Amino acid sequence: VLVAPDGTINDNGARFWNATPACCGGDPEGRSVDDVAYISDLIREAAQTYSVDATRVALFGHSNGGFMTLRMACEASDLVTAAISLAGSTFDDPLDCQPASEPVTMMILHGTEDETILYDGGTIGENAYPGAVAVSERSAAQAGCDVDNPVQGPDLDVDRAIPGAETTVLAYPDCGQGAEVELWTMVGGVHIPTDWNPAAQDAFIDWLIGHPRN
Question: How, if at all, do strands 151-152 and 127-130 pair?
Answer without folding.
Answer: unpaired
